[in-house]
Each structure stands twice: as C-alpha cells, then as structure tokens.
C-alpha cells in the first residue's frame, strides 16, 4: 500500500511538470511574421503585414509642368512611358501647389522620367529633359 502511495505521488509530481509543457493551445501560438508596408496611403500597402518593413513603402508623387510664357500656345508634354498632358494656359507666378489649373499634370511613382515638349506654335522650340519625381509630394518642372 505504501508503494501505491509513493507511485501515486510520483505520478502527480510528473504530471505537474510535464503537463504544462505538453499542452499546446493554438490561440497562444504567435502568428507568423509577415513583413510589409503598413502605410495605408502607400501604393503597396499590405493589409496582411504585421511587421513594418524598412523603407519599402512606395508612393506616387504629383508632377506639374508649368510655364509663364503664353507665346507658344498649347504645349504637349510627353513622358518616356507614353503618358502625355497638354498645358493650355500659363502661370503669372510659380505655382505653390499641384492643383491642376492649366494641364501638364501627372501622378507618377518615384523615379526619373525623360520628357519631350511640343508647342502649337511651330516657331517655338522647347527642349525636353529629365525630371525626378519624389513620391508623396508635389513636384514641379518649369517649361521655358
């Protein structure tokens, strides 16, 4: 009988030490780490991400081409990616925001873009060039 009591106590002690380690509740398990862009305003927002990535969010930027010279008439700005926009008016002063009053507006991902300009007045020659767009802000390019 004494042997049964000792075995029962030993079984109880073992159960107290082993049970907490053998019990696995799925609710207690940590979810897998999913790294991604967690900024809802970004182009590549990942709704399943639970860990922020380092500098991985991508934003589009506004690009406004503008001119203060009305003598060339309508200007057509064409980007290397095929997008184009017409500038149909001119600004007396440099614009202070990307509110599109006269055309020449693009919404683009970060990057550098080559462009050409064609004027309605054939006597006007306006050289093209390159412009860099920084996402999540207004970018300006004056056309001379």
Secondary-structure blueprint of this entry?
Elements: H1 2-22, E1 35-36, E2 51-52, E3 60-66, E4 75-79, E5 84-87, E6 105-109, E7 111-119, E8 129-133, E9 138-142
Parallel strand pairs: 1-2, 3-9
Antiparallel strand pairs: 3-6, 4-5, 4-7, 7-8
Quick recap of the structure?
The chain has one helix spanning 2-22; strands at 35-36, 51-52, 60-66, 75-79, 84-87, 105-109, 111-119, 129-133, 138-142. By secondary structure, the protein is α/β, with parallel strands linked by helices.
Description:
This protein has a domain at 60-142: Sandwich (Immunoglobulin-like). The chain is 15% helix and 31% strand. The protein is built from 1 helix and 9 strands, in the order H-E-E-E-E-E-E-E-E-E. The strands form 3 sheets. Strands 5-4-7-8 form a 4-stranded antiparallel sheet, with no helix packed on it. The protein has a 3-stranded mixed sheet with strand order 6-3-9, with no helix packed on it. A hairpin with a 4-residue loop joins strand 4 (75-79) and strand 5 (84-87).
């Amino acid at each position: 009988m004494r042997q049964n009591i000792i075995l029962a106590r030993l079984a109880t002690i073992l159960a107290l030490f082993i049970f907490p380690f053998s019990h696995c509740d799925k609710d207690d398990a940590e979810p897998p780490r999913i790294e991604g862009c967690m900024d809802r305003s970004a182009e590549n927002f990942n709704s399943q991400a639970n860990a922020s990535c380092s500098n991985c969010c991508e934003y589009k930027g506004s690009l406004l081409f503008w001119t203060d010279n009305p003598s060339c008439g309508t200007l057509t700005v064409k980007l290397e990616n095929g997008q184009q926009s017409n500038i149909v008016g001119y600004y007396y002063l440099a614009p202070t925001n990307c509110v599109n009053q006269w055309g020449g507006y693009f919404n683009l991902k970060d990057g550098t873009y080559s462009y050409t300009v064609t004027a309605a007045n054939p006597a006007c020659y306006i050289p093209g060039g390159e412009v860099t767009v920084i996402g999540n802000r207004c970018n300006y390019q004056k056309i001379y």
